[in-house]
């Protein structure tokens, strides 16, 4: 009888934890409902200057590495291909909707240790692109399969004239 009660207690505790996580996710979605719709990917994209495979980590409000954007499926991690095209940055995610960051929206690119609850051992474990959309600043993180290309990405996004468009 003691085993049954103990098993039941563990199950109830587990169910409460799952409910708490689900409730927190829904609350964050309601809190972020006023965010503007993310830009859609243009019909035609130019040839990619850079492309790398890896994992889309997530998008957060800039400056708060744990404040993951939960609207739609933006908060879902997924295997992805990150491409730098003349129109901006295209993120084609497996099993989730694609993301697109227009060229004029890019404000900064850097490597970082953590974003959206994902923490790496290395200081340069993630490629993070900061971008602005309708007055909101976002950080989008990507963990590449080949981290040796991060410097090329940071240099290209920092020196490229797309980084200065829209700045006063």
Short descriptors:
single chain, about 170 residues, alpha+beta, PH-domain like, 2 domains, two-stranded antiparallel ribbon, about 25% helix, disordered C terminus
- The CA-CA distance between the termini, in Å, is 71 Å
CATH topology (fold) name of the largest domain: PH-domain like
User: Quick one: biggest sheet?
Assistant: 7 strands, antiparallel
* Unreliable spans: 162-168
Continuous helix count: 2
How many separate domains?
2
Tell me roughly what share of residues is in helical segments.
10-25%
Mean pLDDT across the residues is 82
Level-1 CATH class name of the largest domain: Mainly Beta
Number of DSSP E strands: 9
Arrangement of strands in the largest sheet: 4-3-2-1-9-8-5
CATH architecture of the largest domain: Roll
**What fraction of residues sit in β-strands?**
25-35%
CATH superfamily of the largest domain: Pleckstrin-homology domain (PH domain)/Phosphotyrosine-binding domain (PTB)
Outline type: elongated
What structural category characterises the helix and strand content?
alpha+beta
Helix-strand pattern:
HEEEEEEEEEH
Rg to the nearest angstrom?
Answer: 19 Å
Domain PH: 35-157
InterPro entries: PH_bac
Pfam families: bPH_11
Protein name: PH domain-containing protein
Question: What report would you give on this structure?
Answer:
It comes from Lentzea albidocapillata. This is PH domain-containing protein. Helices cover 24% and strands 35% of the residues. It has two domains: 31 residues; 114 residues, Pleckstrin-homology domain (PH domain)/Phosphotyrosine-binding domain (PTB) (PH-domain like, Roll), CATH 2.30.29. The C terminus is likely disordered. The strands form two sheets. The protein has a seven-stranded antiparallel sheet, with helices on one face. The chain has a two-stranded antiparallel sheet with strand order 6-7. It has 168 residues and is α+β, with helices and mostly antiparallel strands. The chain has two helices and nine strands; from the N terminus they run H-E-E-E-E-E-E-E-E-E-H.
